[in-house]
Write a structure and sequence with these properties.
It is a single chain. The protein has about 450 residues and is an alpha/beta fold. It is built from 22 helices and eight strands. The chain folds into three domains: about 190 residues, Rossmann fold; about 130 residues, no CATH class; about 130 residues, Orthogonal Bundle (Arc Repressor Mutant, subunit A), CATH 1.10.10. The chain is globular. The protein starts with a helix and ends with a helix.
Length: about 450
């Protein structure tokens, strides 16, 4: 019994360390440890799924590192071909970096799955169990051959120690059928609750206070002032002020976005504006009600800019209310594609969509549809048509749109890029119109290297 405690002690310590790093994910961390700890009892493959920004990839990497399992992390979006995926995985497993000294050559050339399996068997013989982490695995839903190869990796290698681990926002459609009824264990990551989000954001308090020039001593002075405007300066800001601020950010933003990285960004950018009255000595650090009364306008103004990292937050004027301007450079890539898709849908009739975007028809040499000139006035279009054009503009974006696309639709409405053309409350039945000027849309199209002029001829 003593021997068992000695062998398990490092694992227990590692579990505690990873759990401490990821508050609110104690159950998920413990389950991954249980599934991956024993090499002989590990499942054939794992499928970790949950909302974006929920810590899936980070936790998977930390658990594998804590268990000392050699692994490679490949992005199914970045690796557009099976060969790119295979070669990236082998480069990582061999610690091989592309450089001028090796002529930027990969560790091995793998054009077929048989070559990859053979190379992976060599790694298994030298290093033991190996895990292949496949991020953005929802992209595999339409890549049937590659998906089948990865699911069959233990059989191809003739070694159960080759473990594919898929990471995605959601399970594949008809999951068991898509996975060929393979031995795949799903591990679900639920969205963070509001208290969990606040606890995670509060871990950034020391860094936020350091950026202001405040500290623990300043925090004591700030918390001791009862009211009024005395005790100003950065030293008057304490961790209690950051906790109060984080709680309000979560209340305002959580219904729209629970992506931890995005919320951390918003806190980092908005906190200096929130505590500006304290720093200038106008409001006491403990007077949360007055702080929130002053903060409410710029928090509300920031809601439409979620995911739009335009760098304009710090210059927010809390005294003057100005209309939101179109900042094309501040739009995330997803929103830019939506803007161009909305413009095309609003200026052209649905009958030309296939002529614009159906590559199969063009290759078949079918009869060309005469392209009409773009309409002078925008027309309404359905959500279904908008998303179809959005997907057609991005051939690499297979499968249904991610949740971010729907978040950006809301943001584009709030910022004036899109207008609702019908009164339906439900998003599925919505009709939109794009009133944006051609010059503005052309700027957006240029930023994503989309040749808008080709469609306007």
């Amino acid at each position: 019994m003593a021997k068992r405690r000695k062998t398990e002690a490092p694992v227990v310590d590692s579990l505690a360390t990873v759990t401490e790093r990821w508050p609110g994910r104690e159950d998920e961390v413990a389950r991954l440890f249980r599934l991956l700890r024993d090499e002989e009892l590990a499942p054939g493959s794992l499928f970790v799924h949950g909302p974006s920004g929920g810590g899936k990839s980070g936790i998977v990497k930390d658990v594998l590192a804590a268990l000392a399992v050699p692994h490679a992390v490949v992005d199914c979006v970045g690796c557009s071909t099976p060969r790119a995926l295979y070669e990236s995985a082998l480069n990582q497993l061999h610690g091989h970096r592309l450089s001028a000294s090796n002529g930027y050559a990969n560790w091995a050339t793998c054009e077929r799955e048989a070559a990859f399996a053979a190379a992976l068997r060599d790694v298994l013989a030298a290093r033991g169990r190996v895990c292949l982490v496949l991020e953005n695995a929802e992209q595999l839903a339409e890549r049937e051959q590659l998906r089948s190869t990865l699911l069959a990796l233990p059989n191809l290698c003739r070694d159960h120690r080759a473990v594919p681990l898929f990471v995605a926002e959601a399970l594949w459609h008809d999951f068991h059928l898509s996975s060929g009824f393979a031995n795949v264990v799903p591990v679900s990551f639920a969205g963070y609750s509001k208290p969990q989000l606040v606890a995670i954001l509060c871990r950034d308090a020391p860094a936020a206070l350091a950026a202001l020039g405040g500290g623990s001593g300043g925090g004591r002075r700030g918390s001791s002032s009862g009211g009024g405007s005395s005790g100003g300066g950065a030293a008057a800001v304490d961790e209690a002020a950051f906790r109060a601020f984080a709680g309000h950010v979560v209340e305002y933003f959580a219904d729209l976005c629970r992506d931890v990285q995005e919320l951390r960004y918003q806190c980092r950018e908005l906190f200096p504006t929130f505590v500006e009255p304290i720093v200038k000595g106008r409001v006491a650090a403990g007077d949360v009600s007055r702080l929130m009364a002053r903060a409410k306008p710029f928090l509300l103004a920031q809601l439409p800019k979620v995911y739009a990292h335009d760098g304009t937050l710090s210059s927010t004027n809390t005294d003057d209310s100005e209309p939101i301007q179109h900042a094309t450079l501040g739009l995330p890539t997803c929103a830019k594609f939506l803007v161009v898709a909305a413009f095309l849908a609003s200026r052209f009739p649905p009958r030309v969509d296939s002529a614009f975007f159906c590559t199969a028809r063009a290759k078949a040499g079918g009869r060309r549809t005469k392209r009409p000139a773009p309409a002078d006035e925008p027309h309404a279009f359905t959500l279904e048509r908008l998303l179809a054009i959005y997907r057609a503009m991005q051939p690499e974006a297979r499968g249904p749109p991610k949740a971010e696309a729907y978040v950006q639709l809301r943001a584009l409405q709030s910022s004036g890029w899109l207008q609702r053309a019908a009164a339906e409350e439900h998003l599925d039945g919505a009709r939109f119109r794009c009133d944006a000027a051609l010059a503005d849309v052309a700027d957006v199209a240029a930023e994503i290297s989309f040749e808008l002029s080709v469609y306007l001829k």
